Amino acid sequence: MSGHGDGALTLLHCLEEVESLAAGKGGPELGEALTRLRREVVRHETEKYALRCDLEAQEAEIRRLGGALAQSRRRASDAAGLYVATHRLHATLDRGQVLQAVEDVVASLLGCEQMAVFEMTGSPPVLVPVNVRGLPPGRLAAVRPGEGVIGRVAQSGEVWLAGESAGLLEERQALSACVPLKVDGEVTGVLALYALLEHRERLGADDRELLELLSTHAATALYASRLRRGWDAAS
Amino acid sequence: VNGNKKILLVDGSRTSLLLERMILAPESYQLLVALDGEEALQVAAAERPDLILMDVVLPGLDGLSALRRLRAAPDTRSTPVILVTTRGEPDSVEAGWESGCTDYIAKPIDAEELISKVRSCLGA
Questions:
Q1: Do B18 and A109 touch (CB under 8 A)?
Q2: Does ipTM come in above 0.85?
């Protein structure tokens, strides 16, 4: 930067020299002074160009750091959501409270207030809705594995997201996501998410991590609460 | 720097409360908690928080009614209040403004948006 300041001073000095010589009608000294002035102008422009390049590089670096900061904040926010969900699901062995925690996590972290928990029961197995929130009573019936989106999720063990996955148009319109509930890889039920809050368009890739977490942690929490209930009944 | 700033978090959902605490904890605010509207009024009167972050849907006294009572009390008349709403519809937002909220944020809460609104309300 000091070079830039010196360059400007030299440039001024050269200009004064040329002006003074021009006032005295010039001669060979005027030509030499003009050449020096041109050199100074070129040097000055070169410096200016280098500084501009420097500035642009620094601005690009600031943009990159800003992006990295925003990304790490998003990651921290996602991690906070995952921590909160895990904490809430495993804070109790009471079945009612576990189901309440599932509802609360889905509503608060995913923005969905219409949901149902289906559990696999009987032989041959069938998926029975055991907890429904935000839907009219009697709307949901038992589902056989392989039947519709819910049944297929129970069979495949894979998370289903409307818009990302196949399904009948009617099902895609009603369901936002279907999450298999798995304990040690075995499907024990399905968490079905219906309409989202109005300002949430749809669930996307960003939500998948939380849905995958629910798949195992909600299932384990429900399984543990069933064991506890059995234990209480036996003792 | 923020250690002397008090924020009262009011929410009936323990999941939301825990998430808000997780998001705001690194900012070093003093965080107070209330689970319903009545408790919020009591804590606000006793602790005089610098900011209140309050859900609209609360058990018992709802967020909008609690906000109107905060605005009617001389001690909390000018305390900034950010309403947390599960509804993004204009009606809910309009009711919030009419009741005297300073700002609002929709659930699910976005961490960056929350931090930015809290900072802005606290003049940080």
A1: no
A2: no
